[in-house]
Write a structure and sequence with these properties.
Strands 1-8-3-2 form a 4-stranded antiparallel sheet, with no helix packed on it. It has a 3-stranded mixed sheet with strand order 5-6-9, with no helix packed on it. Strands 4-7 form a two-stranded antiparallel sheet. The chain is an alpha+beta fold. It folds into 2 domains: 30 residues; 112 residues, no CATH class. Helix content is 22%, strand content 35%. InterPro entries: PrcB_C_dom. This is PrcB C-terminal domain-containing protein.
Length: 162
Amino acid sequence: MMQTISSPGGFHSSILLAVSLFLLSGLISCSQDGQDALSAEIAHQWSGHYAEIKIPAAMAGDRENWQEVWSLLRESRPEWPEKTGAFAVFYAGQRPTGGYRMEVEITHQDSDVIRLQCSLHPPDGPATTALTFPWKVVALSGVEGREVQVRHCGSPLAEPPL
């Protein structure tokens, strides 16, 4: 025996609920599409332990600065990555050992500005005792003419204006 549970206006309530869910999913989709238009991301990353820059520093640049930055890193320059609108380079300065790790994340983005923050992590275990100068380069996609501001390892270097 099958039981049917009904509520007042059962069929009409079901239709109204279905239409409401459909419209709500459309609104969510529209807000996500608008967010994607502003969604910059780190598309490529390179890192190393020796650079010509011996002090902590950070800078953002575009295709015009690409070759200059790589010459300071003592590395062969990779081709400019497709769909890249800007890049940022971070220098950790002199460190007493190897094994330091740099992480870069996008901390803020809106229609005018993208802000990047770098964090430096010490070696997880025993490391080579040698002077190193860690660096990291990140290439960004989805920049669309926005200003890229960088903040190195929580320091005020290259801090964006408030």
